[in-house]
């Protein structure tokens, strides 16, 4: 998998594995949650319980920020 990704990158095509994409999305969501805690929107000692649609919205937002979609 890494060889294919490296070959694509050498050709000017950005690529990542599904695992890397999921890790990036989790990192993005964690950073977003940390920002919400700083703003006082959510309490720091609670587990995230976002509605399903909000998870999808954050996924789409991440993909737009990462320029995967326009």
TrEMBL record:
Taxonomy, superkingdom: Archaea
Protein name: Uncharacterized protein
